[in-house]
Queue: 3 jobs
Job 1
Amino acid sequence: MNDVVELPVVVVTDDAFGTRVRWYANVDEAQQPWLEHPLMVDAHGVITHLALHRVPPAVLAVANAAFETLRTDPGANLSHLATHRRVNELHSATELEPIGGGS
């Protein structure tokens, strides 16, 4: 049985607290900020609301590397990780648009 959850939607945001990277299972989930995000990284660490064995190993490796970057530079530009961006950065509950080849 494979309990790994795919997390193909990645949104990178910058605010007064620094850069945050969030992984989601789909766009609909990412557009509902009241839901707990499956995986999030900021300068304080890697936070998951999934059992650790359910996070894809490649995603966890990227999340850990992002944390190491943000630990030394909380405002680091990690936009290269994003697959989607918020249409309106002022509102967290907005629609997303794909970046480049993202879907």
Job 2
Amino acid sequence: MFEFLITICTLGNPCVTLTDREGTRYPTHSACVREAQSRQVPILLQMLEQGYQLEHTQITCRAISWNTPRSPVTYPVPAQTHDRPQLNTRG
């Protein structure tokens, strides 16, 4: 079983990682990637329409077992997790 994580980093903001709200688990890696891609596109388009400058996006499908707790819906990801410096644009 797999669950997806979509990480989105925008210029001047902390990275955000999203996962399925219902905690849906997918039987194969390819099914997980397909679903994550279909969910990522509308989110990115909306962010671009709102004027965000995308710096980095990543889809991860991680293998989980039945006893693995579900991930939270959204949570901030510290910049150092992605091995890139955090930009401080707020004076």
Job 3
Amino acid sequence: MTRTNKLFTLYIEFDGGSYLAQAAGRSPRDAVIRWAGSTDDLVLVGLDEAFRFTVSTQLADVNRLHAVYGLRNVWAHDFDFGDQLAVFHVIETTT
């Protein structure tokens, strides 16, 4: 059985800003890692390659992206990037 890609919306709060992006993947983790490896929307989103690399290494452990209690199809993870806290939300998006 082949799993198809789903669309996910990524909402990132970091350094006083809020950033939105979308990525497709078989799972929330897969979508985030695909986004982190892409350079297509670096200017649009405003997050540099070092930030994306940290995201991909943070999420290399599948258990780091946690379902948000009480919500369906929403996951979150936070981590330190330099001296700033980055909060990452992933929402499965229907089209």
